[in-house]
Amino acid sequence: MNFCPQCQSDKIVKSGVINSRQRYKCKSCNYFFTVNKLGKKIDQYYVTKALQLYLEGLTYREIERILGVSHVSVMNWVRKYNIHKVQNTGFHPTYKILNQTELEQFFSSSENTKGSGMIVTELGDKFMMIKWERFKE
Ligand SMILES: [Zn+2]
């Protein structure tokens, strides 16, 4: 199966021939491309991580920076999987990228773990810790 190089959608249609190369159009993002540029499918791992981070309150740009996938892709996945962020005003997430040792050091101090919720998720060879803190009055 083929995928749009810009947004990884599989909703592509043939759209004429340019310089004797088949041209395609992506119906999701309206991007035109030739067969040479056909995208490789992005690992489902990154799709899952991106949606996880989106639900945690990170912006598209932040997710792009962290995962190295285009924010356009993330926007398309959010639409494709019909993900709705929960409205939240009382907490804000911060995140850190840590290696194994840094993670251990972080958790060894109760100052770091008191009064906030956290999740740790694998991110390549490191870990990402998302921490929720109440807005200070
Ligand atoms: Zn596309």
UniProtKB/TrEMBL annotation:
Q: InterPro entries this protein is in?
A: Homeodomain-like_sf, Transposase_27_IS1, WH-like_DNA-bd_sf
Pfam families under this entry? HTH_23
Q: Which SUPFAM superfamilies match?
A: Homeodomain-like
Which protein, by its recorded name, is this? Answer: Helix-turn-helix domain-containing protein
Origin organism is Psychroflexus lacisalsi
